[in-house]
Specification:
- The chain is of the alpha+beta class.
- The chain has a three-stranded antiparallel beta sheet, with helices on one face.
- A hairpin with a 2-residue loop joins strand 1 and strand 2.
- It starts with a strand and ends in a 7-residue tail after the last helix.
């Protein structure tokens, strides 16, 4: 099967707090994967490092052949992401919301 995601030995710390230490896994096409753990276990940090929204202190991530840390835009053109928290205007319309990630110059829906 095709390798969709490869996480190799990522480590992320915040000052003296080590949030993720030497974490690795591979996800193949057609497989379902869940990331489980207690509050504070580093799940969100792992996901953020995978998406390239946080830079891991060390290790490598490749998703769909793309390094998210160096080419997040290319990755996000192929992968849909719903972040844990989003803050939008109260009365925003769906069409307006859809143009936010795409950018104002990319056209209307």
């Amino acid at each position: 099967m095709d390798e969709i995601l490869k996480v190799e030995h990522i480590r992320k710390s915040y000052g003296d707090l080590i949030a993720v230490d030497d974490f690795s896994f591979t996800l193949e096409s057609g497989k379902v994967f869940g990331l489980l753990g207690a509050n504070g276990a580093g799940k969100s940090t792992v996901i953020e490092c995978i998406l390239g929204t946080k830079k891991a202190d060390s290790g490598n991530v490749t998703m769909l052949g793309v390094n998210p840390a160096t080419n997040r835009k290319k990755l996000f053109e192929r992968v849909g992401v719903q972040f844990q928290e989003a803050h939008y205007q109260v009365n925003i319309k769906v069409g307006e919301l859809c143009t936010v990630p795409r950018g104002p110059l990319s056209g209307e829906y």
